[in-house]
Every structure is written in C-alpha cells, then in structure tokens.
Design a protein that fits this description.
Structural class: alpha/beta
Number of strands: 13
Distance between the termini: 25 Å
Strand order of the largest sheet: 1-11-10-9-12-13
Shape: globular
Number of helices: 21
Helix content: 40-55%
Radius of gyration: 23 Å
CATH superfamily of one domain: Nitrogenase molybdenum iron protein domain
CATH class of one domain: Alpha Beta
Bound molecules: iron/sulfur cluster
CATH architecture of one domain: 3-Layer(aba) Sandwich
C-alpha cells in the first residue's frame, strides 16, 4: 500500500511493507521471496514477550529537546519513562549539553475514563504540560486503552493547539495495532513531518540529514573530505532545527529500518533526496553509499579519491584483524537493517558468519527501490547464510545459540545479551551503533572485539553460577518448533 505522507495516520508495516515476525531458513530464499508474492508470516503458537509501537514512538519523541510528550494511557504504559529519561540524560551528558529530565507526562487513564472517555483529562493534561514546561511542541502518543475505547485524540489535539498556540501532534501508536513495533517510529516521524518540518526557505546542499539513534558522531569524519556536514536527527535536536530539515542537500540513515518512512517522506514532501543504498557499514556498502551520495551532490571525483585513500589507509590493520579472527564463528542478533550491517562488518574483518536472527523483516522499504535491500546486499557480497526472524522470543533465541555455539555473539538489544552470557559465549552488546561506521569503523570494531575476546571471564562465571530458567527438555527442542508450518 503506497503512502501519501499527508495524513495523520500511517498504515502499519505488515500492510505497507509486507513485514513479518516469523521465518527460519536461508537468507537468499527470504530475499527472493520478499521480491515476489510468496512470503507469508509464520505465526508462533507460543510467545513470551515483546516491545510495542508506543515504546518506539514515545522514546524517539521524548529525546527531542524543548518538546514534551503526553502519553494518553494507563499509568502502566509509563513503566518505561525512567529508561527514556536515562537515555535523555546520558545523551545530553555525552554531547556536553545542559542535562535535564525528559518532559514525559501520562494522562493516567483509569477504568472510569475507559467507560466515560478521557478527552477532558487529555485536554487538562495538555494545559498542565504547557504550564509546567512551556514546550515548543507537544506530541500525544496513543495506547491500547485509548485505541480500544475509540478516543478521538485528533479532536482534543486540534482544540488544545488552538488554545495553546504551539504545534500539538497526535501519534497513533497503539500497541495492539501492529506486531512490528518499528511501526511506532513511522508514526512518530509522521507527526514530525505533519507538524514540525516547514517548507525550505533556503537550501543548504552541504548539510546532510542523518536519521539515527543516539550513537557518537562518526559521520563527520566520513563526510568531511566531501565537504559535507551531517546533522544527526532526531534525538537531542531542537524543535527549531527539526523545522529546517527540508533545507538539507540529502537524507541518509544509519539504519533504514528506523528511518524508512521519514527519509521517504522528506523526499516526497520537501524534495530532499534520500540516499537509497544500504548504510555505510562494511567495505562494499561504504563504497556504494559514498558513490550514491557523491552522485546526488556532484562530488564523484572527491568520492573516488576518498574510497581509494581510505581503503589504503586501513589495509594493513584490516589484514591483521582478518588473520586474528580467521576460523572464528560469529552470530548476529539485531533489528533487520542494522543487523545486516553487522553481518557485513564481521565478515569483512575475518569472521565466518554462522547465521543471524533479526527482530522482524521488511519485504521492502518506503522508497520502493530494491537498491536499498540490505539483506540482498549481504547475500550478494558475502554469500548465503542461515537466517531467522524472531521478535525477541528468548526461548527461541537461547535454543538457537545453544545449538550453534558461535565463538562470539554480536547483539544490539540488551534483553537478548544476557542469554549469550549465561551460556558462556562472549557476547558483545552494540551500545554505540556508529562505532563500526565506514572504513575506519572496521578497525575500531575489530579492536573492540579483540579486547572483548581477551577476557571472557564474565561470561564464564555467569555460565558457571547462574542457572537457566529453562529445563533441559525445553532447551533440546528445535529452536523454531513453535513457528507454524508453512502451507
Ligand atoms: S500501549 Fe499497549 S502494548 Fe504498549 S505498553 Fe501500553 S498496554 Fe502495553
């Protein structure tokens, strides 16, 4: 289903991008089936846990500086607020900004409100939020409860906007709407597109929008030789700066799973070209990405020189890393596009990839160009591998890695890291998503893994002293035994 990027709502990923949460097989088969019509989600007969769209939307929006987020929900949905605040304060500290609390408010919907409606409560909360924080914009994130009672958030938002005189956006991120929690990013970014980004007054072709999470800035060193300046968005950016995203020369992404909707929307609504090739992780992706961006901005000669000089600069250290990691097996667990990046990085620095498991799979991206197929890129440049799609089901994950016994696990999500460690497998948490970026990122990441492998005592001790909650019978089942059989 195509987007017009002009409405308050966003179609969920299952319908918009053909996204799924259950698959096991080969990566190449998934690539081929994603391009045709034969890919079906394999539901699970049993599930343990998950995240929700409201989590993703509220987190992204709460990191925008000078804005506030009102979560129209029972107070239980605010259970993650303290973690969002931790991200906010941690990121501000790293960026040497003034450290302050995230502006997060819950309407605390009660049973009474679910019967008689929560509109008045929402209006009152919006007034109180404005009185306390004087934000430059407010985002109202929905919840399962507000969705089930059919609350007209849009109506309340329009009334409050007229009364308070600042942009107020409704964000349709009800947890039950989609099994793909990344849908929450899409609706959050849609709210920014609808209410915050203004038409360009003046173009700045040297400025590049970089859609990302909270990692350190390694984009500057990569783009500086081309005379380009990255603006990392949206965490830790002001409302005013977001209003000028339309003035940039191009939009790139650190992870196309995160920014697919936003980048396509900026191109469609404001004419900012999106760089569609996979993000610059690994040699082949970095070459392609630099060529794409230089083509859009007329910097082809500078890009070829940069590719040549950077490849030469890392050649000796890269060979040494490859020698060190030769014969070692690595396994990746992460969100899809970023996980694919790590599948490339690990193979470039010499590991044998024993497989990967990603939290969901998008059959396509919002721009619709197959050039952006990150899993297709891995298969084309590094070959086929075992591949699974698993939305953080711990019981499935632990069976899988127990069977594969990799020499190192590279994991993006903290809740899965513990399982590798409890099995005694050296497990690296990808805390800074930019560390492996570009050519020099391969060396940085190789050095990080080297030091991690030098002392595996934390995993050894955890495996020795912390019993697993699963019985042997449970662990010995086939990893994907609860995926329904494909017809
Ligand atoms: S929005 Fe729904 S799924 Fe998300 S935390 Fe609230 S109740 Fe849970």
């Amino acid at each position: 289903m195509a987007n017009n990027f002009n409405t308050p709502g966003v179609e969920i990923r299952e319908r918009r991008l053909g996204s799924i949460t259950g698959y096991c097989g080969k990566a190449e088969e998934l690539v081929e089936r994603s391009r045709g019509c034969s890919l079906r989600n394999r539901e699970r007969k049993f599930t343990q846990c998950g995240t929700c769209s409201s989590f993703c939307a509220t987190l992204q929006l709460s990191l925008i500086q000078e804005a506030a987020v009102v979560n129209h929900a029972p107070v239980g949905c605010a259970g993650d607020f303290s973690m969002f605040n931790l991200y906010n304060r941690y990121g501000q500290t790293k960026r040497k900004m003034n450290v302050s609390n995230a502006r997060l408010v819950s309407t605390n919907l009660t049973e009474h409100d679910t019967i008689f409606g929560g509109k008045e409560k929402l209006l009152e909360t919006l007034r109180e939020t404005y009185r306390r924080f004087h934000p430059k914009a407010i985002f109202v994130t929905a919840s399962c409860a507000s969705g089930i009672i059919g609350e007209d958030i849009e109506e309340a938002v329009n009334e409050a906007e007229a009364e308070l005189g600042i942009p107020i956006a409704s964000v349709g991120c009800e947890g039950f709407r989609s099994q793909i929690w990344a849908t929450g990013w899409d609706v959050a970014f849609n709210a920014i597109l609808q209410k915050i980004v203004k038409p360009a007054r003046q173009k700045h072709p040297e400025r590049i929008n970089v859609i990302t999470f909270i990692g350190d800035d390694y984009f500057s060193e990569l783009l500086k030789p081309l005379g380009l300046v990255p603006d990392l968005i949206v965490p830790f950016v002001s409302v005013d700066d977001l209003s000028r995203l339309s003035e940039a020369g191009a939009t790139v992404q650190m992870c196309s799973t995160l920014g697919t909707y936003f980048a396509a929307g900026l191109e469609k609504l404001h004419g900012v070209p999106e760089i569609k090739s996979p993000p610059p992780y690994g040699l082949a992706a970095t070459d392609n990405w630099l060529r794409d961006i230089s083509h859009v901005l007329g910097k082809e000669k500078e890009a070829e020189e940069l590719i040549r000089s950077e490849r030469a600069a890392i050649a000796t250290e890269l060979e040494s890393l490859r020698g060190k990691f030769k014969g070692l097996k690595a396994f990746v667990a992460a969100g899809p596009a970023h996980g694919h990046s790590f599948m490339s990085v690990l193979q470039d620095i010499g590991f044998d990839l024993t497989g990967g498991v990603m939290l969901h799979h998008d059959s396509k991206l919002d721009h619709g160009n197959m050039k952006g197929d990150t899993l297709g890129h891995v298969v084309k440049h590094y070959g086929n591998t075992d591949y699974g799609v698993c939305n953080k089901q711990s019981f499935e994950f632990i069976r899988l890695i127990r069977k594969l016994k990799p020499d190192i696990l590279v994991i993006r999500h903290p809740s899965l890291v513990v399982w590798g460690a409890k099995l005694g497998i050296p497990t690296l948490f990808v805390d800074d998503e930019h560390l492996a970026l570009g050519y020099r990122g391969l060396i940085r990441y190789g050095q990080k893994i080297t030091s991690w492998l030098l002392n595996p005592s934390i995993e050894k001790n955890l495996a020795k002293f912390s019993p697993l909650p699963y019985t042997d019978w449970w662990l010995e089942q086939e990893p994907y035994a609860f995926l329904e059989v494909e017809q």
